[in-house]
Design brief:
This protein is of the alpha+beta class and 111 residues long. The protein is 25% helix and 32% strand. The protein is built from 3 helices and 4 strands; from the N terminus they run H-H-H-E-E-E-E. The protein has helices at 12-18, 28-34, 40-53; strands at residues 57-64, 70-83, 86-96, 107-108. It has a 4-stranded antiparallel β-sheet, covered by helices on one side.
Length: 111
């Protein structure tokens, strides 16, 4: 989906992975509130580094849904377009790996 500048644009499936109702306006604070507090420092580090250098990125982390359920997600992506030193478009995929054999706490995924 396309969104106006300065916005997050997610698929319906990604909203579900974070336990956020589809169409809810997304913000840094809302997204952060769903990332496990022990995993957030790594997620933030990987995100900031990839925005700065434009390299492919991957990170595995836990989300906490409103009912207290914890899910493990793996995000892999790349900054596709940069303008004036800022990311314009970031594209990637997020997979729910909760039931997978490698369901471990937060880790950086080789990109």
């Amino acid at each position: 989906r396309q969104g106006p500048a300065g916005t997050f644009t997610w698929s319906d499936e990604l909203y579900a992975m974070y336990g956020i109702p589809v169409g809810t306006p997304l913000s840094d604070g809302l997204i952060r509130s769903r990332i496990h507090p022990w995993d957030y420092p790594l997620v933030e580090h990987v995100w900031r580094a990839r925005l700065a250098d434009g390299e492919a990125h991957g990170v595995r982390f836990r989300t906490i849904l409103p009912d207290g359920t914890t899910r493990q997600l793996e995000c892999i992506g790349r900054v596709m377009d940069r303008g004036g030193g800022r990311a314009i478009t970031v594209r990637g995929i997020t997979i729910d790996v909760t039931a997978g054999p490698a369901a471990n706490p937060a880790s950086e995924v080789a990109g």
